[in-house]
Write a structure and sequence with these properties.
Helices cover 29% and strands 24% of the residues. It is an alpha/beta fold. The strands form three sheets. Strands 2-1-3-6-12-13 form a six-stranded mixed β-sheet. The chain has a four-stranded antiparallel β-sheet with strand order 8-9-7-10. The site of ribulose-5-phosphate has 17 residues, from helix 2 and helix 4.
């Protein structure tokens, strides 16, 4: 089974949690794109939903498929968000932001009653951190911001290179909100909660890619089947 087929399997399983009339948050990335494709087919067949996108790319995809779209200002509470992840652990802690959409993704996910993460099995890890942690930061004072991140992260045992994300043409990557991304190569993050708290103290950091206590269910597709990870008392399971 290809990685693409696994992404489709996770996306299609997520679709079984969508009910008529739901207000949905649509994540960003190649796995979510499979979900949006599948949702588009359901909408074409008559499913009634209203969606909010976490990025301009997802907005464009959904509009092309004829999915009814809203904004978070018009629809500030959503029933369910479906999104991908760069890494997730057994406690449903995530690293997100590989696509640079972490700020809007976190705003939309926390405005939702539920968040389902969809991923192929390569994303499941024992300890977060092999994937560099993305931070969305303001341009002003970048060097001071980077120094403060480095010092506060070191206090909680996280050290490593912190790189401004660049594009192929050599210019800095800009998020949909016009900010920069710093990719933090910390390696294993032994205490994600502590790192999250430390990063919140840096004024130039708008948001970090650790999603802790936000996801309710993970749908992980492996060649031998689809695994669901969620709180045992969660009625999504
Ligand atoms: C974008 C994200 C994505 O969800 C994450 O990068 C996973 O993407 P993909 O499904 O393409 O592997 O956080 O900011």
């Amino acid at each position: 089974m290809t990685q693409d087929a696994l992404k489709v399997a996770a996306a299609e399983r997520a679709l079984t949690f969508v009910e008529p009339g739901m207000r949905l948050g649509l994540g960003t990335g190649s796995t979510t794109a499979k979900f949006v494709d599948a949702l588009g087919r359901k909408v074409a067949a008559g499913l009634d939903v209203l969606c909010v996108a976490t990025s301009e790319a997802t907005q464009m995809q959904a509009e092309k498929l004829g999915i009814p779209m809203s904004t978070l200002d018009e629809t500030p509470f959503l029933d369910l968000t479906v999104d991908g992840a760069d890494e997730l652990d057994g406690e449903l802690r995530l690293i997100k932001g590989g696509g640079g959409a972490l700020l809007r993704e976190k705003i939309v996910a926390t405005a939702s009653g539920r968040m389902i993460v969809i991923a192929d099995a390569s994303k499941k890890v024992d300890t977060l951190g092999a994937f560099p942690l993305p931070l969305e930061v303001v341009t002003f004072g970048l060097t001071a911001t980077r120094n403060m991140i480095s010092a506060l992260a070191a206090d909680v045992g996280c050290e490593g290179e912190i790189k401004v994300r660049m594009q192929a043409d050599g210019s800095p990557f800009r998020t949909d909100s016009g900010n920069l991304i710093l990719d933090c190569h910390f390696g294993q993050i032994e205490d994600p909660e502590e790192l999250d708290e430390a990063l919140k103290l840096v004024p130039g950091v708008i948001e970090n890619g650790l999603f802790i206590g936000i996801a309710d269910l993970a749908i992980i597709a492996a060649p031998d089947g689809v695994l669901l990870i969620g709180a045992e008392d969660d009625d999504l399971l």
